[in-house]
Amino acid sequence: MTAADAPVDDGGMRWGRLRPWFALVGPLLAVVMLTAAPAGVKAGELTWPKWLVAGVVAAGGVLVAVWAPLVKARTDALASRTTRAAERDAQAEEALSRLPSLRGKVPRIQDVTDRALLGIHEAIPLPADSVSEQGLSAELPTYVLRDIDADLRTALEARSKTGGFVLLVGPAAAGKTRCAYEAIQAVLSHWRLFMPPDAATLSELVTGGANLKHSVMWLNETQNFLTGPDRLKASTVRRILADTTQPVILIGTIWPTNYDQLRTAAPTDDENDDGQDLNRDAREVLELARRFSLGRWSDQEWERAEELTSVDPRVGQALRHRGQTGLAQMLSAAPELIHRWEQADNPFGQAVITAAVVARRCNHPMVVPIPIIEALAKEFLTGNARATAGEGWLTEALTWACQPVHHSGGIAPLQAFGEAIGRVDGYKVSDILVDYEAQSAPISQEQITASIWENIAQWATPQACYPIGIAAYFAGMLTAAASAWQRAADAGHTSAMVQLGVLLDDQDDVEGARAWHIRAADAGHTDAMFNLGVLLRRQEDADGARAWWQRAADAGHIDAMVQLGNLLRRQEDADGARAWWQRAADAGHARAMVQLGNLLHKQGDIEGARAWYIRAADAGHTDAMFNLGVLLHKQEDADGARAWWQRAADAGHTVAMIQLGNLLHRQEDADGARAWWQRAADAGHTDAMVNLGHLLEDQNDTEGTRTWWQRAADAGHARAMVQLGVLLHKQGDIEGARAWYIRAVDAGDTDAMFNLGVLLHKQEDIEGARTWYTRAADAGHTVAMIQLGHLLHRQEDADGARAWWQRAADAGHTRAAAAASDLSVEE
What we know:
By secondary structure, this protein is mainly alpha-helical. It is about 65% helix and about 5% strand. The chain is built from 43 helices and 7 strands. The strands form 2 sheets. Strands 2-3-4-1-5 form a 5-stranded parallel sheet. A two-stranded antiparallel sheet has the order 6-7. Helix 34 (about 670-680) runs antiparallel to helix 35 and helix 38 packs antiparallel against helix 39 (about 750-760). The longest helix is centred in the N-terminal third of the chain and has 48 residues, at about 50-95.
């Protein structure tokens, strides 16, 4: 028996289901006994005092009156719970029915060998004279070990105890899918293999409570799960990974271009921290994965392939063309496919291939309908070709494009696809061509014009328009994105309604955005509810925001729970904030864990805060690592603080880099401090630039000091402006100092106001000095108050001097108190 087959002790679950019924039956039995007791006494001819009988009857009546509504409420609650449980079970069963199965069950990894089912590229065929007794697979060439295999399999082994997510990144036909398949076969062969066709199925498996323990979730072409109509939520992935007692491995593959695009923030005028960034979930999902890269074949990989030439003739055939591309691409006939497209002797055939490639690059689903191919192909034909095309040009071109390339078996640029016998619904184009980017290619991504985008949006089905709109949006083709989403939204696609709302919000059409979000929210789309809350919060309608976030949170939207917690915390409802953050944290939301830790820290529950920070840090949240460092530093555990800040800094947390630098500087490790401040400064953190300036000043490196303070000041750091002014003042550049002080004043720095007063005072501009001292003093600068008092005292304004010194004294400045006292003695 494997771990996946082990029996589960559900005794606690059975008692949990029965306990509510005992809560009902107990009181009901009491009612029955109390109401039946007088009759029993009479039947048994027992003598009870009349007052006792009356009391028993009255007690029974009271219990009936009081308990009846409670019983009804409990019964209704139990019925509702049973209904919800049944709905979840049905949801899970429906999702399971959409998965590939073996004899009605989710297959084990060791039983899955179908190349097409796994998504592995078709390979060149075995030579006709190959010996069948060699036991070679007709579909899968002999596997050549890749350089990443050892690390990948070690990672899978480590994650088999708690669950995890690994992602293979590489170009088309680089061998990603085969590499992933061989890794799970080697490490997890007895685990079950879930192969969800889309993100909606995966989400329904999770929310429906399907048993996923000791299973691998196969996310080949991961971008399809992150850009489809029902995109995979980061909260869903966190929920899978949060339960380490039920380990699940997610393994995916993705092209580098898609990986980079999905990790890019939306091309709008702000970062949309409130959740309207279209790529937010995709970016967070990708950040949860351990990434492995498959690029060019190394010399060691080619050497291992050489050793297999006598085993599998296909490997030998591919090796004869070594140097053109990688072995996996060779086995997939990539050079022949590219040659057919680039060097086509049929301009119409080349045009239809280009049309299908462009449609896929614009995020059209894999099957491209004939009308889109026809419309786009005309864009890629010369005027002469269009004029001389015969009546059957399209049919002839498609037939040519579907012919297999030389020595490749059935591999062709295009392949016809149909749901019904004898009907062609569209064509699939080779992923190798879609991913191929070279100067010699018939078209590049930059050559996909606005008119091409509009053509695709016009001819695609409404369902296909949603992902096309996503791609258009990130390509900066906002008009095409709006057109595509409009068609999808008009057809009832709620996610398109949401994205239209986001687009209109980006364009400052708040009412239009609200209207689309409301339509989607009324249809039950939780992202729309969440976004409505964001819109209303920006308009300072806290009650409206709370209402929409409440609806979304009640429907399970994790980000809405976090925002509700944030809102309640600002309203000083710590208990309410804690409750919502707790729900989100229990669902695996790392930011909610950090917020819980912060709240507990402020409430003095250091151990509780530490526990939540550690959970968030284990989930990779760098703020949690940083906060753990702060917590330990306050407890004077410098080594512990340094360790957590080091983890956060290594993960790119710039404030942790600064704190590490500060810690090392206090420990008199100037080189270590400089190294960390340098990293933070190179990442653009102006505080680090200021610190570097101070460090170099201590080392008498005036030019280095000035350089770093100049960089920080140019980036708007007011303190750097003041420091630069002081440095220039010391060097005798009075006008330069004045200019930086004035810039710092404009940024609100009171020291700059004071310094301007000092500068003018030295130039004997008493009125100018008094003006700046007064501005600084009014802003709370105590030394300015003292200087103002001295100035007024010299001008024989004793009352004015006393008033300013008194203000400085009230602010805790001892010199001011002494000056005020001396003035009183003089008088």
